[in-house]
Every structure is written in C-alpha cells, then in structure tokens.
Amino acid sequence: MIANVSAATVTAAQNGDRLALEKVLSSVEDLIHGLARRILVNPEDAREATQEILIQILTKLSTFRNESSFSTWAYQVAVRYLVKAKKLRDRDLGLTFEMFAADLETGLVADPPEAPDQALLLNELRVSCTMAMLLCLSLDLRLAYVLGDVLELDHLEASKILELTPATFRKRLSRARAGVEGFTSRHCGLVASEAKCSCPRRLPAAINGGRVQAGVYPNSAESRIGYAQARQQIDAVVDDLKTFKLQHSVPAHACPDEIRTRLRRILSPEL
User: pTM of the full predicted structure?
Assistant: First the structure.
C-alpha cells in the first residue's frame, strides 16, 4: 500500500513551502530507495540513484499536475531515471539465469561446517541471492516484475508508471514471472528441496568469494524475518507461491539516513 501526501501539501511544496517540501520528500524516500535497491541490487548504486531521483523529484515538482497520485508520478520520475542513466547501464553485468545457476553450483560443500554467526550469514546469503536473481531479467522485465509482483502495485498503476498499455505490462510481467519462477523451482534450495544449491552448502564459497562477510549483516539488520523463519514460511505455501514468498521475505530497505540529511540540507542550507 502506497502512502500519499495530500494535494494541498503538494501545492504548498510547489509554492516553495519548506515544511511541505519535507513532507513531500518524506512520503516517497523509502519508496524510491526500495525500488532502486530491487532494480539495481548493489547498495552503493541504489544510494546514488536514490539521491539523484529525489533531487529530480524536487526540481521537477512544478511539472506535477495532479493527474495521478503523487507517488505514481514519483515512481515515473524514478523509472525514467533508471532506464536512461547511462552510468548505471554501463555497470550492468549482463547476467543470465544460466550464468547465475552455474555460479551457484560452483564450490558447493556436501557437508558444510557451521560458521560462527551461521544464522546471520545464511540470512545475508538468502537475501543477497534472492535479490541478485532479478538481475538475470532484462531491465524492462525487471521493472515489470518488481512493480507488479514485489511491490504489488495495481496493474493499471504499474502500466501507467512504465508508460505502457495494460496489455503490454501484463505480457512483460508474465514473461518475468515465468523466468524467476522457473529458475527458483530448479535451482533454489529454499523453494525446491531437490535443487543442488542450498544456502548452507553454498555459504563456504560465498564467504571465500566475499559475497557475504562475517560481522557485516546489513540485510539482517533490516529483515523482518531470519533465515529459519523464511524457510518455514516458504515451506508452508503451495508450489506456485513459493517464489512469491521468497521474494517477499527480502527486507524493504528504507532510505539511508545520510540521503535524508543531505536532502534536508539542500532544502535548508543554513542548517
């Protein structure tokens, strides 16, 4: 569910009211960072994109015409940035589901030793892997999947954000969903017990490769649930909902405080 500011608050912000501007920013900061984090995955890329998008929202605020909810318009600004930002496209790894599957099955340990902070490390691996698999989708399919299945926006609203016809949006969402569900049903041990890869078997290679690090648990700090709880929740649903439950067990990733502070300084340079 998206929280929206009132039309009166947006109008006041467009007229330069500083407190209204802060309310407008506060209403979309977490939404924009959550979108950037799921689309870009890399935390630093997401921070950079979030700041740039929020600045664009401020500078383009006068163009908002109340023809949609404010959050819908803000998401449109975000999507246009994510699609057009060359520096972000240049960092695209060109990952495919086949490449990701091969990587996951490299270095699996049949009888892995238990690491210190095992539960936290497994949770970090679960979250990072669940997010990374979306990089196997092309950007247009990734946007459709995140808006439609991860953020669960109404399909009419999502199609408006992406500037697509509803039929085209549904087609993209269907293709993306088939790709993600097909991958998890074959290669993710949390979804398919017969899959080669499982988080415990994968953990030693992930630690050695620097994918997760002892003592560094950013995802677990924001997670509503841990690894064991996520596994229980996924096990409890029927097959066609397991991938949905897996993606929804990822933390929401609130907008970092340093971005909030930086933007408030832009609004109030004397502070």
Answer: 0.92
